[in-house]
Amino acid sequence: MTRDIQDLPLSRSTTVGSIRIHALEAGLQWLDGGAMFGVVPKPLWERRIPADDRNRIPLALRCMLVEAPGALVLVDTGIGNKEDEKFRVIYGVQNEGTPTRLEDAIRQAGFEPSDIDIVLDTHLHFDHAGGNTLRDEDGRVRPAFPGARYVVQEAELVFAKSRNERIRASYLEANHAPVTEAGLWDLVRGEVEITEGVHVLPTPGHTPHHQSVLVRSGAETACFLADVCPTSAHLPLPWIMGYDLEPLVTLESKRGLWTRAREEDWLLVFEHDPTTAWGRLDPDADKPALREGVVA
Ligand SMILES: [Zn+2]
What we know:
By secondary structure, the protein is α/β, with parallel strands linked by helices. Helix content is 21%, strand content 27%. The strands form 3 sheets. The protein has a 7-stranded mixed β-sheet.
């Protein structure tokens, strides 16, 4: 079990049809295990991911790089480098790099951050969109990928800016306002093909306008789940995070995904799983579970 960022390879690669994808490790965070598993009792979840002495569990900040035929696409951006020491201690952030571990992982996969054409945000929580922007040496916060277009659901951006008391600790303005100021957003509505082979699929519940990402090539599909199912331990339908704003909506999003994933043998990519980057559902299991031998 991963307890340190060094336990995870910076980049793991595979192919979906003729498209190459890379699981990039942008660091770790440590979050309250109870909050991560909602109504699931601790004796059940701690068998899957053991907690530390503060009841926290390690979570990856895994992003996905897609070598689509028409564009190099980065899905989610980790936490970034803008937060102060207090924040980093509270959330147990380990993402040191040049300037963060995400950029190191992009280079490990054979690219430079400036090669990214499209940054695709599943939603705008700080552990998914924090690396959208970086603080430079002059202390100025600017887009981390100035040559890229940034994509998110239009309603997710509106929601992030609404900042009510229940959501505002998760939506930090510095992660989206500089992108707006630079005019870099391409806002989308619903299910859309972003570039050849890369589609966004609304999977609401965690937030009302959360989206997952499908990579399709030939007969193969990979699905970057994001927070509809953050780790492989969250595969069972009722294992839903306490953070989710609409857990019953998450339940139906997952039910629909697992039906399609089984039928089409999708490769499922987990953003926060502390060890497993991806796997495929076992078609013979009565509950959603990963097939042995096809996990990495
Ligand atoms: Zn989230």
